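USER:
Class, as today's exercise, take the chain set out below, and explain how the chain folds.
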Amino acid sequence: MALDRVAGGVWLLRGDFRGAMNIYFIEDGDGVVQFDAGTKSMRKKAAEAARELGGLKRIVLGHAHADHRGTAPYLGAPVFCHPDEVTDAEGDKAVTPYFNLSLLPVAPVRWIYPLLLRWWDGGAVKVNGTVSEGDEVAGFKVLHFPGHAPGLIGLWRESDRVALVSDTVYLVDSARLKPLPHGEASVPHPAFAWNHQEAKRSVRRLAELEPLVVATGHEEPLRGDNLRPVLEAAAEKF
């Protein structure tokens, strides 16, 4: 199983399109908590990874978009998310209602996204409980980063300044379906935003934490002793 160690007790499983979809496993006693659920095609590898790490205790969704809830209906573990994501998580729409794909500048990308989102989606998820700002998940503190989605959350561990942030910030150019240049980041594209200005504020809040590791929903984690300028610049894009 190709698991990458992100930090102490934190493991990353990459899969699907060019390995750009991320699922995180956090050690929690004799098992693991899964943060984010990737895409449907990752369900078998996610189940194998959880078994290898001691067994899956629960799944916490960073948010409920199709490429982040994909494995959740298949793994037999209780699912948690922010209260503001419950409706979308339990809904049957692969294309989230507030998306505005007409804002994407490249026509073929606009056309392919509805197909990709349906391919990635695992369908409606039964939510067993919720987590909110300040709650604890496997030694991490829950932080609310609204904007890309109304109930988007990240997990923050002060002791080693590790942030698992789902889609709070992008390391991909989603308008062109390719990675950003190494060391660059961006606020999520407004085509996928519930509230783009809130998304910018959330990236600025992340920058103020001065993390040493920013583990995102797509691509390899961003690392460095001074990531604040990178994140502040990311907030000013679009």
